[in-house]
Amino acid sequence: MNLVRFHHPHNAVTHNLVNELFENFLRNDHDESYLNGCGCKPSTNIFETDKDFRLEMLLPGFKKEDVQLNYHENILTVKAELPEEKEENTEAYKFEHREFGVRGFERKFKVPKTVDADKINARFENGILTLALPKREEAQVKPPVEIKIG
After folding, report:
1. Could you confirm whether domain 28-84+100-139 is CATH 2.60.40.790?
2. 103-138 per-residue burial string, b: 16 or more CB within 10 A, e: under 16
3. Model-level pTM greater than 0.70?
4. What is the pLDDT of residue 120?
């Protein structure tokens, strides 16, 4: 007996629209642009509140001085370059198998026009880069106003 997944056409349309919305919002525009062709990218969390967007990026092995941030024409670029690591293959110490290392990267995010670029701030603590991208005053969600019937 084979199990076949059934997609109702109405659900597929809704599912595709929702996926497209989230994939296009604050997404990485250049997935193949990482240095060394390793295809690795730092893990990133993106949150939205009424007043701002928050971006958290996990950067173990990096220091604050290694990270460069740039914002230009609604593109946020996070870049880290490290000096080339020289492998120490001596008679006493030789890599037999290697799965991790710290590599440089460049990651770009398309940011909504509602972000106030002059007020973006960044913090780097315990290997986590945290960016706060405040929304412009006119873009912030206002509480509903109750209207009395006269």
Report:
1. yes
2. ebbbbbbebeeebeeeebeeebeeeebebbbbbeee
3. no
4. 94
